[in-house]
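Hi all, a correction to my earlier message: I attached the wrong file for Coenzyme A biosynthesis bifunctional protein CoaBC. Here's the right sequence:
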Amino acid sequence: QHPKDLAGRLVVISAGGTRERIDPVRYLGNDSSGKQGMALAEEALARGAEVVVVAGHLDVPAPRGAEVISARYTESMRQAITSLADEADVVIMAAAIADYRPANQTTTKIKKIDEGDETTLRLVSNPDILSEISHRPDRGNVVVGFAAETASGAALLELGRAKIRRKGCDLLAVNEVGEEKGFGRDENTVSVLDASGEVLAAVSGTKRDVAEAIIDQIVRTL
Ligand code: PMT
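and the right structure:
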């Protein structure tokens, strides 16, 4: 039985993958299913929180009891998170957000070229939502990021430490990702770092087990 240690708290969770339009029928995307974000939403609800899920593309439904705001594209996710960040007690950025968008978006379908010919898609870097909400002056809430890295062991943790310094959040859940890891799976392996880079918890299990460990650390930080 969970303690209701998030009673009276508003927890905003981004989940799933964002997309970027290339043309009216094509997009850039990623393999995030939203399972980790939904497990966090379930755990936060079980512990008494009011939960808002800001949902990119999801392969799984949001839990009953969570309010869902649909934000399939990076800019709509940015707007939704930014407008909720002030009132939220906790913001957890579990979404896999597109780092790049096409430099030019056409309103007509891009034409096929001859087989074997090359073409180029120019990309520009997107704003970093986690960094923006973490660096707001007088921020009073707990902001939690994720780091998805294709490294392992000590190298993975070093990438996580560099990322939490850069992004400025309070806690960072570092997970190794790859074809058979992280994205889309039912299990996950996560280390939770604090702002000084110390490992507060390390957990391997279902995404709900991981969510429980992350929320334990959030409650201690609140
Ligand atoms: O959805 P699942 O299939 O269950 O998979 C779970 C997961 C692997 C997607 C999840 O556990 C995870 O790691 N989510 C974060 C994925 C990611 O985009 O990581 P990153 O290292 O590229 O980004 C670091 C952090 O910055 C993340 O909190 C991300 O939400 C945030 N970010 C990234 C880019 C950007 N432009 N703005 C951001 O806010």
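Sorry for the mix-up. The mean pLDDT is 96.
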